[in-house]
């Protein structure tokens, strides 16, 4: 499996999951109550739902940009929007727009865009608090990019669940139903699925 094969479908699946979770919250609670959840938090020192959604969108774009060796300055506005979402959570439409923008970005990537060549330069990952990690492309994808993305997706799921939105595992991994084995058709004469 290549890095592109790992990251891009994962990001697509889970961004669509986030969109579906928002749709379900709105269907169950109504637009106003669901929109109010954008300010909800799991704990006082954690970011609200609006930030979790935006940061998931950032992760789905920043990791590919790093792997492509591109500057990711265009994401600075989205990062700032996420950091300020406690005071300005925006609307459900805003959140859906950010998800759609991230999906549209992923659609621009070629099937092997993130794979690079063996021996490509390491990735220096410097965090805002000053820590720097030296990673290969593979360890960056596996140990950082996937984990960071899922952290924000799961935080968003947990906030919605905590707020009373009726969601479960099937809502978190709806893409898995594409792989569901179908039961064999029963023999019309005997009713037996084995013949």
Plain-language structure description:
- 55% of the residues lie in helices and 4% in strands.
- It is mainly α.
- It has a two-stranded antiparallel sheet with strand order 1-2.
- Strand 1 and strand 2 form a beta hairpin.
- The model has no long low-confidence stretch (mean pLDDT 90).
Keywords, separated by commas or semicolons:
Four Helix Bundle (Hemerythrin (Met), subunit A); mainly alpha; flat; two-stranded antiparallel sheet; 7 helices; 195 residues
Determine the CATH superfamily.
dinb family like domain
Please give the CATH architecture: Up-down Bundle
Let me know the average pLDDT: 90
Q: Biggest sheet: strands side by side, in what order?
A: 1-2
Structural class based on helices, strands and sheet pairing: mainly alpha
Any idea of the CATH class?
A: Mainly Alpha
Low-pLDDT stretches are: none
**Would you list the SSEs in sequence order as H and E?**
HHHHHEEHH
**What's the structural domain tally?**
1
Helix content: 55-70%
Organism: Sphingomonas lutea
InterPro entries: DinB/YfiT-like, DUF1993
Pfam family, one: DUF1993
Protein name: DUF1993 domain-containing protein
């Amino acid at each position: 499996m290549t890095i592109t094969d790992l990251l891009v479908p994962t990001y697509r699946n889970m961004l669509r999951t986030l969109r579906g979770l928002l749709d379900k919250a709105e269907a169950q609670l109504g637009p106003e109550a669901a929109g109010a959840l954008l300010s909800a938090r799991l704990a006082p020192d954690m970011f609200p739902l609006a930030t979790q959604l935006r940061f998931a969108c950032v992760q789905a774009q920043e990791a590919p940009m790093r792997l492509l060796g591109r500057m990711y300055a265009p994401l600075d506005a989205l990062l700032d929007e996420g950091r300020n979402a406690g005071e300005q959570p925006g609307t459900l439409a805003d959140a859906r727009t950010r998800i759609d923008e991230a999906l549209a970005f992923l659609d621009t990537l070629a099937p092997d865009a993130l794979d690079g060549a063996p021996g490509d330069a390491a990735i220096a990952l410097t965090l805002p608090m000053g820590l720097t990690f030296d990673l290969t492309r593979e360890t960056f994808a596996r140990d950082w990019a996937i984990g960071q993305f899922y952290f924000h997706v799961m935080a968003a799921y947990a906030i919605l669940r905590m707020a009373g939105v009726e969601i479960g595992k099937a809502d978190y991994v709806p893409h898995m139903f594409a792989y569901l084995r179908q039961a064999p058709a029963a023999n019309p004469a005997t009713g037996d699925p084995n013949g």
